[in-house]
């Protein structure tokens, strides 16, 4: 079955950087777009970035220019480099198959928490 293991979260000061990693298994990684999602306290989970199977990428307006998604099809890994972090980036970050229909995803990893605070 689908397994997703996120890592790399932590506490960082505003303006700082953090790199997240996700190990995926249980499906044909190279044939699926992959996404990073986040859920802040009291808010719905949202798609932050998506890397298609080719070179297409998508970023939410709130992170455009600051976050970079990448993937390694040989290692079944997806990454999120986060720069110029803001307090509003504080959330639990999850990776999953990339889709704008978040409700269609029924398996999630444990996520990795990111806290941006001074």
Q: Could you walk me through the main structural features you see in this protein, from its secondary elements to its overall organization?
A:
The chain has strands at 3-7, 10-12, 18-25, 34-39, 46-51, 57-59, 67-72, 77-82, 91-97, 112-116. With 118 residues, the protein is an all-beta fold. The strands form 2 sheets. It has a 6-stranded mixed sheet, with no helix packed on it. The radius of gyration is 13 Å and the shape is globular. It starts with a strand and ends with a strand.
Which properties best describe this structure?
118 residues; mainly beta; 4-stranded antiparallel sheet; globular
Strand and helix layout:
Blueprint: E1 3-7, E2 10-12, E3 18-25, E4 34-39, E5 46-51, E6 57-59, E7 67-72, E8 77-82, E9 91-97, E10 112-116
Shape: globular
Count of β-strands: 10
Largest sheet: 6 strands, mixed
N-to-C terminal Cα separation, in Å?
A: 40 Å
Give the rounded overall mean pLDDT. Answer: 96
Strand content: over 45%
Please state the oligomeric state of the protein chains shown: single chain
Give the number of helices.
0
**Low-pLDDT stretches:** none
């Amino acid at each position: 079955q689908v397994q997703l293991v996120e890592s790399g979260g932590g506490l960082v000061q505003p303006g700082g950087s953090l790199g997240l990693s996700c190990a995926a298994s249980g499906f044909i990684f190279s044939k699926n777009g992959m996404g990073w999602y986040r859920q802040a306290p009291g808010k719905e989970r949202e798609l932050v970035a998506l890397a298609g199977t080719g070179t297409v990428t998508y970023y939410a307006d709130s992170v455009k220019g600051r976050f970079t998604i990448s993937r390694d099809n040989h290692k079944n890994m997806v990454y999120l480099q986060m720069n110029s972090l803001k307090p509003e980036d504080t959330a639990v970050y999850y990776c999953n198959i990339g889709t704008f229909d978040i409700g269609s995803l029924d398996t999630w990893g444990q996520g990795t928490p990111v806290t941006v605070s001074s």
